[in-house]
């Protein structure tokens, strides 16, 4: 038969060993003095040795009790540490930031799973460009960020890699002799840089036809046939747009690496659980 020490009994013993009376201990553990006396009695029966002895001055710890003290302190400290880890006294909202691509294609599934695992956690969401998300993590305005890769201290590693695509309206055409019209975010933007560099390397002229701070703005311009944009396959979800790079013989684009960002020195259960769910999706 597996025998297990009762933490409540150990708590009563430790308080008395630290100089508390039975009455004081009873108040601290929320039991009656007679219940505390029963705690000590049962603990002595389990251990097979007396741990407290009454004398003229009150109660003293026996040799067996002195041996038990170190074990009791460690067991109760681990118990208290576990409770703190899973039942934070002060709930704090978890502030999550992500790029627009990730927000639309990846974030909903992550949030659904997190809500199932941690329904009590309040979430604050910020959808922004990669640089803004990373800077917010650096400044402590966000707890977790998902953004394009940048080599800096809050980068916790790659979450996923996706090929950049030339995205346009189906059937849209641009003769090789004409500059390729582009719909892009303002600089600095990794997708903007990749598009311009790829076209320059292939000897194709380009022009910025549309600039927008939002993915919705870029999509509207591309759907209207005003030009192409460069994003990942996630930007195709729920749209009439398509990858038309091969049809237009446009040059290959690099991979886009999306990374997790958070301060390594900080840690609390809600944030660590969210980070773990992010890592699992890969």
Give short descriptive properties of this protein.
Arc Repressor Mutant, subunit A, rod-shaped, D-Maltodextrin-Binding Protein, domain 2, alpha/beta
Your description of this structure?
- The protein is of the alpha/beta class and about 280 residues long.
- The chain has helices at about 5-15, 20-30, 35-45, 65-85, 100-105, 105-115, 130-140, 190-200, 215-225, 270-280; strands spanning about 50-55, 60, 95-100, 125, 145-150, 155-165, 165-170, 180-185, 205-210, 230, 240-245, 255-260.
- The longest helix is centred in the N-terminal third of the chain and has 24 residues, at about 65-85.
- It is rod-shaped.
- Helix 1 crosses helix 4 and helix 2 packs across helix 3 (about 35-45).
- The protein folds into three domains: about 5-85, Arc Repressor Mutant, subunit A, CATH 1.10.10.10; about 95-160 and about 260-280, D-Maltodextrin-Binding Protein, domain 2, CATH 3.40.190; about 165-255, Periplasmic binding protein-like II (D-Maltodextrin-Binding Protein, domain 2, 3-Layer(aba) Sandwich), CATH 3.40.190.10.
- The relative contact order is 0.13.
- It contains ten helices and twelve strands.
- Helix 8 links the parallel strand 8 and strand 9 (about 205-210).
- The strands form four sheets. The protein has a five-stranded mixed β-sheet.
């Amino acid at each position: 038969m597996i025998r297990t020490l009762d933490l409540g009994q150990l708590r009563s013993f430790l308080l008395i060993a630290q100089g508390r009376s039975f009455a004081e201990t009873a108040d601290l553990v929320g039991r009656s003095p007679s219940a505390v006396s029963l705690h000590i009695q049962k603990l002595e029966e389990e251990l097979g040795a007396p741990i407290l002895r009454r004398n003229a001055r009150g109660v003293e710890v026996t040799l067996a009790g002195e041996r038990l003290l170190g074990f009791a302190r460690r067991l109760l400290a681990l118990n208290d540490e576990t409770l703190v880890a899973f039942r934070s006294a002060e709930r704090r909202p978890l502030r999550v930031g992500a790029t627009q691509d990730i927000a639309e294609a990846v974030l909903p599934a992550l949030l659904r799973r997190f809500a199932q695992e941690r329904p009590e956690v309040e979430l604050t969401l910020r959808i922004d460009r990669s640089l803004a998300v990373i800077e917010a993590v650096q400044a402590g305005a966000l707890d977790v960020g998902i953004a394009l890769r940048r080599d800096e201290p809050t980068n916790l590693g790659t979450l996923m890699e996706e090929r950049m695509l030339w995205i346009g309206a189906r059937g849209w055409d641009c003769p090789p002799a004409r500059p390729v019209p582009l719909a892009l975010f303002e600089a600095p933007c990794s997708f903007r840089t990749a598009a311009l560099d790829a076209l320059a390397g292939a000897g194709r002229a380009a022009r910025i036809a549309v600039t927008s701070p939002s993915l919705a703005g870029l999509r509207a311009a591309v759907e209207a046939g005003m030009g192409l944009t460069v994003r990942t396959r996630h930007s195709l979800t729920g749209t009439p747009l398509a990858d038309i790079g091969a049809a237009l013989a446009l040059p290959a684009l690099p991979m886009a690496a999306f990374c997790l960002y958070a301060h390594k020195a900080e840690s609390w259960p809600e944030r660590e659980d969210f980070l773990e769910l992010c890592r699992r999706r890969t």
